[in-house]
Amino acid sequence: MEKPCSLLVHFDKGSAAMANEIKADLEGSDGPAKADAMRRAISLLLNGETLPQLFITIVRYVLPSEDHTVQKLLLLYLEIIDRRDPAGRALPEMILICQNLRNNLQSPNEYIRGVTLRFLCRLSEPEVLEPLVPSVLTNLEHRHQFIRRHAVSAVSAIYRLPHGDQLIPDAPELVERMLASEQDASARRNAFLMLCSCAQERAVSFLLSNADRVAEWPDLLQMAVLDLIRKVCRSQNRANKGRYITIITSLLSATSTAVVYECAGALVSLSSAPTAVRAAANTYCQLLSSQSDNNVKLILLDRLNELRTSHRDVMVGVVMDVLRALASPNLDVKRKVLDLVLDLLTPRNVEEVVLYLKKEVVKTQAGDLEKGGEYRQMLVQTIHACAVEYPEVAGSVVHLLMDFLGDTNVAAAVDVVLFVREIIETNPKLRVSMIQRLTDTFYQIRASRVCSTALWILGEYSLSLSEVESAIATIKQCLGDLPFYTVSDEGETADSAKPAQPVVNSVTVSSRRPVVLADGTYATQSAATEVISTPSVAPGSLASTLNLRSLILSGDFNLSAVVACTLTKLVLRLEEVQPSKVESNKACTEALLIMTSILQLGQSSYLPHPIDNDSYDRIVQCVRLLCNRGDDVKKIWLHSCRQSFAKMLAEKQFRETEEVKAKAQISHAQPDDLIDFYHLKSRKGMSQLELEDEVHDDLKAATGGFTKDADDANKLNRILQLTGFSDPVYAEAFVTVHHYDIVLDVTVINRTKETLQNLCLELATMGDLKLVDRPQNYTLAPESSKQIRANIKVSSTETGVIFGNIVYETSNVMERSVVVLNDIHIDIMDYISPATCADVTFRNMWAEFEWENKVAVNTVIQDEKEFLDHIIKSTNMKCLTPPSALDGECGFLAANLYAKSVFGEDALVNISIEKQLDGKLSGYIRIRSKTQGIALSLGDKITLKQKGGS
């Protein structure tokens, strides 16, 4: 990102004394002093000074100088000054310059000739250029290539002037004749570009006559050839399409990577045949593996993604080539590769893709991989998506991923356990092995969230007797000895969790505090837990298995409630599968002892914070349930939870399927559209690639491939009026927003009867916007118009403002007139698009993002769902809350919205509203983001749009 410069460069503006010093140095005979004076004069001109008194001095004393440095500075000076009088005619003094320029064009020094020819490219006065034309044409045949290449550029610039065809009427013929015999690469490129812009038919004829030798041309000329082919194809001239494709195909094996990249893009724009698309995709994949620049890789992945949207069937064949880009160390490249691969999954390649991803997961176990935890999380999420879409591959990856339940990267561990939870429901064949693996690796889990989900899985899917007994034993082992703390009348602490043998790499930590017993005597209360000093603890050691005990003693009573619920489910299921009442009663007694110990710990003074009410109520409910077990309660605890989870997964799948169907049902073609029968066409002289292209053109026409993205009405909405109708200058702008660029096409109309001189469009920006082009001066004839284009760079998602004015001069009024323009507000909606993310990811981002904007609900809409739909439509965001959670009429509504900007920024919105007794809606809309700009801009947009109807 560009950052503001903090260096202040001092420059003294011109004064009369400084102008006199420059004049004195110019009149002297010292060459270096004269060159230094010219540099100071040019600096003053560039900083806004006019210095009109120097022009005659320069003509008299600098023009005859033979010093090459002085001559080059003279050309720079002539380029900067205003060469026209207020009436728009060339200054009389410019006639004096013509002789000097002619002498330079005939100079024996090649450098002087070359820089003079380059200077002529910037002249636009026909009366100055006309006497110089014969000398310019003579230089087309000079022996030195430096002069020839600039001579071609000068001829092209003169010919493109409004009346340039009168100055050099035979310029295309001369340039074409020169191109046939020229050997210098730059000169040939300049000549070919001149033909492309001024005589396109001659350029096409020259290209087609040398089609078999294009591969031998230099890369500069090959790039110009590709530009010409694109330009010709845009004009819908398809007569020589087959020959163009042959030329592009021959250039795919060029040595220049820039040429190869442009060839692939030109091939796709020219043909939609599978052969052409496949060749372009293979080219992009080869560049992806050969280039080391991460920015280049991201651009290539964008091109591949564009091919995927329109040619998915062809792109499926290169999915393994795309996966090789995972060797890049950059996480952004890896993320784009995985997203692209997910969109290219098919039943044929899913096993191969998952096998490759498994190898990448194994690689992340090496400690030398930078950001291995984040990369492993991305791989887990990708494998999860693959297994959900194609359940048959889940068995080959789930056991490998379960080894990462105890990952130090909590986010990756959470993704793994959520993956396990979903797969164990959707793949009944894997349940037995997954439950066994989960009980074996449960002691490795260190994160509370992962423990909670793993306990829920054990409670719901441990169905056989051995599984239930193993799950209960695992939980007891991870809790350690009971009680969690002891009280001694003699003031001594009895550590119930202390192992009989010393444990390597663990330290027992005891906390003691005095308490008053019921009889008024004093005692000491303590609790003990093991703190593992190093991660290399033996799996069988006691300290490494007490993960639940450590979390509970740290004050995590939500996990304690989950432990109680899991034990309750396991005891109830044990009664169903265990014929012996003695064993089930024993398990029930042990579960009750654990729950009461947790309650005792939560109500003790050992922990700084007592147990919360919700966790206390849940544990007490479990105690009551185990003391009074009924059939109806058993049914709810043992079956309803799993049924609700299965229903949630089915609804999620249904919602995704409906979205795909909705996109597929969009009509792109009308029933009365023309049908072009391919089989009835003449195939004479057509290549196989052209035949394939004809078929695909028919398919694209039927499926809407040629449908325009935006209609004319949307374009008209982007035209903004900048001035009033009564202003002497009328201006309006057509705003085009494309990712990182904003292009303003400003139409300026002179509504007066006078010629406007030095008309300049001066723009300024506010926000993260930056002007790219310097303002230029124009001359506008009476009642004529001018198209001015301004480019603006965008660096972040923030509502920016563009403001400015139009400054001009007239012959009658010597002062400059100013017309102030209306402000142009760049809408944040042009940068964000709806996106989806997992609920866990949303909650993690909500907790991490520091910027929050809270907007109070103020609307005339009285229906909660209608208001939610209005906000979604106004903010261009995606509702992550499923429709089933929004069903019903309860007077409350809470929903999460999510969007992503083109810069990769996340926008999170939570809507919480309540319907009052008077029918009005109240509540708050909270926006969170990592940057301040998107939070404030989106809040302003919601404030403006939430009232409805606007």
UniProtKB/TrEMBL annotation:
What is the membrane topology listed in the Swiss-Prot or TrEMBL record?
Answer: Peripheral membrane protein
| One CC-aspect GO term | Golgi membrane
Pfam families per the UniProt record, alphabetical:
Adaptin_N, Coatamer_beta_C, Coatomer_b_Cpla
| Boundaries of every Coatomer beta subunit C-terminal domain copy | 671-809
Coatomer beta subunit appendage platform domain: residues covered: 815-942
Annotated Clathrin/coatomer adaptor adaptin-like N-terminal domain residues: 21-472
Function in brief: The coatomer is a cytosolic protein complex that binds to dilysine motifs and reversibly associates with Golgi non-clathrin-coated vesicles, which further mediate biosynthetic protein transport from the ER, via the Golgi up to the trans Golgi network. Coatomer complex is required for budding from Golgi membranes, and is essential for the retrograde Golgi-to-ER transport of dilysine-tagged proteins.
Annotated protein name in UniProt: Coatomer subunit beta
